[in-house]
Amino acid sequence: xxxxxxxxxxxxxxxxxxxxxxxxxxxxxxxxxxxxxxxxxxxxxxxxxxxxxxxxxxxxxxxxxxxxxxxxxxxxxxxxxxxxxxxxxxxxxxxxxxxxxxxxxxxxxxxxxxxxxxxxxxxxxxxxxxxxxxxxxxxxxxxxxxxxxxxxxxxxxxxxxxxxxxxxxxxxxxxxxxxxxxxxxxxxxxxxxxxxxxxxxxxxxxxxxxxxxxxxxxxxxxxxxxxxxxxxxxxxxxxxxxxxxxxxxxxxxxxxxxxxxxxxxxxxxxxxxxxxxxxxxxxxxxxxxxxxxxxxxxxxxxxxxxxxxxxxxxxxxxxxxxxxxxxxxxxxxxxxxxxxxxxxxxxxxxxxxxxxxxxxxxxxxxxxxxxxxxxxxxxxxxxxxxxxxxxxxxxxxxxxxxxxxxxxx
Length: 409
Known about the structure:
By secondary structure, this protein is of the alpha/beta class. The protein has helices at 17-30, 57-63, 80-85, 89-94, 106-121, 150-171, 186-194, 213-230, 241-245, 249-254, 274-289, 311-329, 350-353, 370-378, 388-391, 403-407; strands at 4-9, 34-38, 52-54, 97-104, 127-132, 174-179, 199-201, 235-240, 295-300, 335-339, 345-349. It has 2 domains: 4-148 and 309-353, 3-Layer(aba) Sandwich (Rossmann fold); 151-305 and 379-407, Rossmann fold (3-Layer(aba) Sandwich). The protein contains 16 helices and 11 strands. The chain is elongated, with a radius of gyration of 24 Å.
């Protein structure tokens, strides 16, 4: 029986999923291996009837440059009981599988490590190599190397935001854009910088103060008032969804936002549009202070996850796939594949990346680094002490809208 490898995709989609899977398939097929695709993410490994199929050259060649994921994905996370009672060891034994390739984010990587240890303890060692994926760009790769999918998502997000900005300019309105990024603001900042958005609000901005609804609103008004002073009656504001996820439940309740809560009492923000929420809160503030501004909410989220990958990700994902083969032939396991700017692959061992809880801490925006500091210094528009006198035409206390004072910078 031929030696085999099996590939699964976990978490949510990102441009380049098919490029990774199909490039892995082509590379290993050329090396004489059988390549098996597993549908349903990790749920397939804990099922008596996993949905698997062989990936041959023609299938790989037809799908490698397409968006979405040919292998159906899942966010399934196995429990200890799943490992003890439902793990399908026979899938590996009967198919002579030597390597498990997982494609996903930090949760997918952590589960891959658990599976490798589980199989090794049962005298069936199998290599596991993880390919880092997320449009949030929040996996800790060296030298600020992006995760695959991020640049394609940023490209489409910027394309949408440019059109939105043109709508704002044409109509003389303000459009409020919410962008994906639960734990980091890379995507929102990338979109904001690419489109010269006058205000981008990300969780990392609040490094010297807590995140509150009042501060989010005042940062937005700081940009709006500054542009009024400049004679510019329009603009966009980009907000990372993580800003809202980091709000205290009491703050949300106090703002009069109606929403459901989970069994732990945490607000289920994933069920609502953050852009709509943001717009409603801002409109209440306009009425309170007597400022006449028209705003419209726009959500950028699921429309950037399954698009065709741009050339950057097509080549990057191909290099990651070939890196998987190179690491496997060197006997590496329990690692993420890392490819540097020159195309050289090396392992990042999961046990070195994980914390005491077995999680990989997210890579957040370096708010003091050049990308963020230059954007906020030169592209953003906001109130400074030099604007106080002119701003009194619109608000009684301009100092309350001073960008640096709001953030305690």
